[in-house]
Amino acid sequence: MVLKVFFPSCCSSAESGILIGRWIPEQSSAVILAVVHFPFIPVQVKQYLREVQQVTEVGISVLGSWNNSKQEKEESLSEFLEDLGTIFSHEPWIQISKEGDSKFWNCSTLQKQSDNHREEEIILVYYDQRKVMLSHLHPPLDTADLGAEDASKLAAIFNTVASSKVLFMTDRYDDGPIKMTHWQSDGVEASIIVELMKQASVPACMLLTFLLSLVSGVCNSRVLKFWPLSFLWSKLSTCEQLSHRLQHLQVISSSKKAQNQTQLMRKANIFVSLLIDVALGILLMSWLYRKNQIGRLADTLIPVADHVAEELQDLLQWLMGAPAGLKMNRALDQVLGRFFLYHIHLWISYIHLMSPFIEMILWYVGLSACLGLTVALCILSDIIALLTFHIYCFYVYGARLYCLKIYGLSSLWRLFRGKKWNVLRQRVDSCSYDLDQLFIGTLLFTILLFLLPTTALYYLVFTLLRLLVVIVQGLIHLLVDLIDSLPLYSIILRLCRSYRLAAGVKFRVLEQQDGKPLRLLMQINPLSYGSVIQTYRLPTYSCYPKDSWSSLCKKLFLGELIYPWKHKGEKQN
């Protein structure tokens, strides 16, 4: 069995001492974690390792000796390090020695039972202890049994280093009896600053949690559950986005500690997403209130609404004539055209009635951008829905009339064939009709059939207009979902510190010398950007139903309504 020794590259210049780490017998691997320098008392070292084992629950022990001879080889020191194997009982006893500035080390194992040195079948693997300590190994998504086994072996090494945080709190500059060298030996001050920042964030989180509990209590009160308020809360996308962001604030302000790395990354992604969202919202708000941009928008909004209404009037006048040379039913065509023209007249009157207050409404709406860019986009979507409410009404009228005729024709077609729809058994059964029923049914079928082209044309035109509005709102909500669900912290971490998101490792063979152990350098393979987004994507809500193309075409053909808003409770995880 080949013995693999994982040696931290930060300890290559450490002074002579003993090697402490974890022995993994299933893999015949030794994971070196630190080097304890001379002088030391063996009893204190054993007691310290027992305390570390109780805290970390990792079997840390003394694995061997480390001899860094910067001058000529010292025989007495080598014998002393070899005799330490009798004090610290470990099988096998690993001996690593470095002579001067040489890159090639001597590595051997001492078996106490046979009392012989073995200098062959040893692989010395150098690894960056800091990167392995801070990285999180992600299991591969699609692996065979062999790949899963290799991943579990590699995870044991990563978990050993990551679970030994307590061991890295002591270094060679401490005044205690034990002095060590490890990855954090020169950076303890930075970790202390991080701990102080964590302690300072506790009161802020408690205050934020208290404020959020008050807001949640108001939102869950019975006043908001009455019909008008509950209906608006479930239909307006702004309310849904505010509820979604409120849940995010409750997650990041929770005093409950993250149980694993996934929960910690989720909190970090939510925090960065909120931070960037609010920053973009403040930039938008600063642009709106600079050089009277809101006044310009208000002056542009009314002419645009009038232009849209005029275009709809021209479209209806075209439909009331001979559209594309089609022969329409003139009586029904005139009734439908005048009906829709009257609605447009009411809508123009409503817009001009609201025109003096448009600038004031936009001024207060612009303040909502401080809550985030997503809230401002949702408000824009709701404003578009309100400004195009007459188009939605036209679509509903046309869809209901078209749907009534389609279902009437299908029912009369079954009567014409001597069949009927069995409501109890949900199937079509045979039925015998008398002569009067067949005559009336055939007459109604003929009337509906000849009136269908006129109704279908109006339904088609208003459905296309409605789909145009839905596409615009869909693009806005697509941008909102992108900001809400994109794991920005994970992407930034992958860009700046790719080793933190490890997908695996690769081994590079270093320069070799005859009679020396094989030297490998372990390097971390980061996750791809697609895997990062797939792994850490935040849950969000969808404002539009996830219908397939076949289901959508079926609804359009039958005249069923396509609701632009998501009903309450239909959240996508």
TrEMBL record:
GO terms for molecular function: phosphatidylinositol N-acetylglucosaminyltransferase activity. GO terms for biological process: GPI anchor biosynthetic process. The gene is PIGQ. PANTHER family: PHOSPHATIDYLINOSITOL N-ACETYLGLUCOSAMINYLTRANSFERASE SUBUNIT Q, PHOSPHATIDYLINOSITOL N-ACETYLGLUCOSAMINYLTRANSFERASE SUBUNIT Q-RELATED. One of its GO terms (cellular component) is glycosylphosphatidylinositol-N-acetylglucosaminyltransferase (GPI-GnT) complex. Keywords: Membrane, Transmembrane, Transmembrane helix. This is Phosphatidylinositol glycan anchor biosynthesis class Q. It comes from Coturnix japonica. Pfam families: Gpi1. The chain crosses the membrane at residues 270-289, 335-354, 361-388, 437-461, 467-492. It comes from the Eukaryota.
